[in-house]
Amino acid sequence: MTPSLFRSRLLWLFYVALASVPLSVSWFSERWRFGLLLASEPLMALTVGALGLGLVAGWLPWPRTARRLDKLIGLHVGALFVSTVFSSDVVVSAKYFATIVLYISFGYGVQRVLRLERTEWFRALWALALGTGLLAAFALMRHAQIGISYTFSYFVARPFLEHGHTNLTVILEPLVLVLNMALLYHPRAQRQRGRFLITMLLTAVLMVVAFSYSRASYVSMLAQALLLLAFSGREAGVRLLLPWAVASCLVLGGWQVVNIVHPHPPTAAKTNLLQELGSVSDFSSANESNAERMSRWLFSFDLFQQEPVVGVGPGTFPDRYLEFVRKAPAHPNYYTTLRRMNAHDLYLDWLAESGALGLLSGLLLLGYLLVRQLKWVFHGPQTPAQVGITAYLLYFLLHSFAQDFWQEPRVVVLFWLAVGLQRYYARAAMHSAPTTPPVALAAPASEPTA
């Protein structure tokens, strides 16, 4: 096989795997676990395996030098490996470690080795957008049929981990950023037809966000809008006001219509959108979601005190917390539940599961990416790519205080794609005069997304 043919086929496998990543739900049979859940992760493993085969066989060139980012990734993976070796449950940690290596190898390794060009980035982003669009359409269709249900939102949001959970809207936040960037910068969005189409797409995505019961995502969307206004200024910012006002009215109207058609959806949660928005700061026991977060945050510090250097083991937090709540602690700050999730904070998860080694290596990695982005922003004229990638990285880091994305495939894969895209645009800016790139390419940096 010639190197060019192998690279072409590997790219198409990469695109198919990307399209399948957002569709990681058991749609067809909950009993037999039959659905795209069975396809996406094996496709990623197949892509990474083919990448390794190409490197060994000489069909793909090895990277000439190790970048600083490569070394920081290796440092963090090494810290996770040390924590795995000393884990309280080596089998669980080994599975978690292998999964993290797979996600990084797929999201970062493939585009790092292949050095994607402009057209290839377009295709990768369209593949990811196709899967995300199908997921959003499926969620809206099911809500129209059964009502606004927290139970359903939780089911769709569930990723590969059997008892894992992430907010569905985390993978939609980058899509909202893409649409915002189009409204601000794309020439077709300044025409009536283009503006109408993007406004309708924005409305559909925001409906999925609103129906998901994700208060953290509501706040994240607001932070994203404020960041864009701060970057783009008043003149460009007014381009967002009317589309967002129209979309908000349609979302509120759609919420009321669904509640009228389905007054008693199969869920115990209240379906008042304004009450959901107002409960963001309520951490009392009356608010199960927020109280649960506080409980997990406090428990993370307890685990850190048990193993401050290497942690209790990557991926072991859910089992340790489940064991803890089954003892029904009498401490008033803990809200007991049998749901098995993560620590709801990326940094605290690192601290509890991988100790000081995992936290420091993770902060060095994320800190380097942030510093690199800020250097790029303050160098030369402002471009849409700079605005989009900066907004994405900032709200990814901020949202990580309320959720752990490192083990969520649909979020962390997009995050590594954004890292690669940042590198692509930064290098292009160094070799030529800054130009306004197509918003579709600026957008990927705009996924954490996740």
Describe this structure in words.
There is one protein chain. This protein is mainly alpha-helical and 450 residues long. It has one domain (3-442). 68% of the residues lie in helices and 0% in strands. The protein has helices spanning 3-20, 37-57, 68-85, 90-114, 118-146, 150-157, 173-185, 192-210, 215-261, 273-278, 288-306, 317-325, 346-377, 384-399, 409-431, 439-442. Helix 1 packs antiparallel against helix 2 (37-57), helix 1 (3-20) packs parallel to helix 5 and helix 9 (215-261) crosses helix 14 (384-399). The radius of gyration is 22 Å and the shape is globular.
Structure summary, number of beta strands: 0
Shape: globular
Based on CA atoms alone, the radius of gyration comes out at 22 Å
Largest sheet: none
Mean pLDDT comes to 80
Total tally of structural domains: 1
Helix/strand-derived class?
A: mainly alpha
> What order do the SSEs take from the amino end to the carboxyl end, as H and E?
HHHHHHHHHHHHHHHH
Query: What helical percentage do the residues reach?
Result: 55-70%
**Low-confidence spans:** 32-36, 434-450
How many DSSP H or I helices? 16
Q: Which strand-content bin applies to the residues? A: under 5%
Distance between the termini: 37 Å
Membrane topology: Multi-pass membrane protein
Organism: Hymenobacter properus
InterPro entries: O-antigen_ligase-rel_domated, WaaL-like
Pfam family, one: Wzy_C
